[in-house]
Specification:
Keywords: Membrane, Transmembrane, Transmembrane helix. One of its GO terms (cellular component) is plasma membrane. It comes from Massilia atriviolacea. Pfam families: AsmA. It is a single chain. This protein is α+β, with helices and mostly antiparallel strands. Among the domains are: about 80 residues; about 150 residues, no CATH class; about 120 residues, no CATH class. Helices cover about 25% and strands about 45% of the residues. The chain has twelve helices and 31 strands. It has a 31-stranded mixed sheet that branches. α11 packs across α12. The longest helix has about 35 residues. The protein is elongated. The termini are far apart.
Length: about 675
Amino acid sequence: MPADDGGSLRVGVVRHGLVPGVLKMARVYRKQGHAIGLARCYTRRLLQPPSFVMQARIRIAVIALGATVLVLGSALGIVAARFDPNAYKSAIVERVQEKTRRTLTIGGDIKLALYPRLGVNLGKASLSELGGKGEFAALDSVRLSFALMPLLLRQEVVVDRIELRGMRATLVRETDGSMNIDDLTAARVKTGSAAQAAGNAGAGPARVRFAVDSIRVDNAHLRFDDRKAGRVFDIARLNIDSGPLAHGVPSRVALSANIGVDKPAFNTVLIFDSGFSLDRDTRRVAMTGLDANLDLSSRAGIESRAKLKGNIEIDFGQESIAAALNGKIDDSAVSGKGALRNGILQLDIDIDRVDLARYRARAVPGAAGEVPASGSAGDSAPDQPIDLSALARLRASGTLQVGELTVGGVRAANVHAVLLAEAGKTSIKPLSATLYGGNGNGAVSIDFADDAANPRMTLVQDLRGISLGPLLLDATGTTPLSGRGDVQLDLHTRGASSGAMLEALGGTAALRLREGAIGGIDLGRLVREAKAAAGVGSSAESTSFSELSASFRIDGGIAHNTDVAASTALLRIGGEGRFDLAKGTVDARLRCTVAAGPAGQDGPAAAVLGGLTVPVALSGPLTRMAWQVDVAALGSEAAHKLGTSTPGGGKDKAKEKARDALGGLFAH
């Protein structure tokens, strides 16, 4: 509205003789009232009872109030009948164009309203981008209500209620950080400074003061195109209902909205109610007693619900947000503090328990881009897509405490992690926990420097005193190896799915175990019975050991080993092999040296073959390993041992003794 609108309204009221008449009546009343008061004070004070004086004053006040209301009502009626705000539409449009170089389009009529509040109703309107190209914002209707008494008595335009319906706006942040509202915010600062200077100088016939009693926003739609971060935020069905917006005045606000983000793709329905207060001097908003509900869903099939309470403080001067919240996220109790300052997120979170499998991306059947299962049917878990792009631009630090954590079936407790994310690299160091009777310490890092879409991930972990069998069972569903001891991992990989990560896995691993077992084959039985040269193991079979150690070099998802060493009551085992971690298969050669013992203690073979090395080949899936004894090598070594141990024995006699001792192991 033009700056002289307040003056025009004033002129209209004065022109019809209303205000001068009221003022004249007031002056006469004051003079007469003063004289009567003096006379009555000294001549009739003792003659009139107090009740009569009080009644007289009330009657006078009621008459004066009625006269005032009558005058004001008449004035408003005349103004509404003769004042046409649409006459100012062209002036308003020109003023906006002059000041902002944006085009304002007012499609509907501007209407004055007298009841229940003095106000202005505006129909459809839109504002263009800078230079007049494209639409920046639009709305279906807006209503501004004004406080009446400040307007009449102090010539102040006080906006006490704002109602917006069907508002739409698009904010854009370019790659250089500039925004499509920079010209408006700069103009606002400049205008505000000029207005303050004018106010100090005592210039200007009218002032505009915002003391908003309430704001109502219905079905708004805001879009934030953040080209610098490479994301688009979409806020739809935004509804806001707030109390007073005034400096230092406690108030409340209720809000609901659908919020969507394209990278990573997710949508959340937000509903919250909160008390709040504004500090105009420090440009801060304090939200207290916040009660928020969020329903989140993603294109990857992740769904989550949260109910949180707490406090939030927003500092517009420092462009920062600080929050302290607690509540429930799905089945987890969560409490934490966080702050966002200069684009850096600071978090300290405490969770009682969480199962990350609930938040694992799942391919929707029949949807485009669905990733099929990898490996042989029934031999491996379905390939799971993994999208870590949300971490590429993360700048954050903080701590995480989890009472009970489950990751891919693996369970840990008392988890403590320290997060640091900057310059395209996210690391968690240290990462410690208690698990499977022992404890672990290490670090995890994700580096986006080489390939933002396919980051390099590393895991360093030192596990001490753990029970390996239950860990492998929870992680893979099988127990190819068990025992208690230590495991060291230094691994790296990259990939967009769990299968791709296994196939790209590299690094080193080492283990040292006590009192365990090798699952899938009973080497002791093979040696004791010495009946067959080949067979297939099963989950019901195992080889118990007192000690086992091995180290691995991992490349392309294949673990290579050359130093397996294990001890059993009957055998001393050594060997080498390769393990395909993605397919879950093994190809190994073991050398099982029979420990010498009393005749008959471990069957005929042990009595004869004490000190003899039995070569065993293992191959196939870990759940059903095929084994085979190297007959030729075993026969030659057995014959040599028996021949040298029997005085006067020849070669043929040694072979015959070996056949007798080993039963059906050799072909005749």
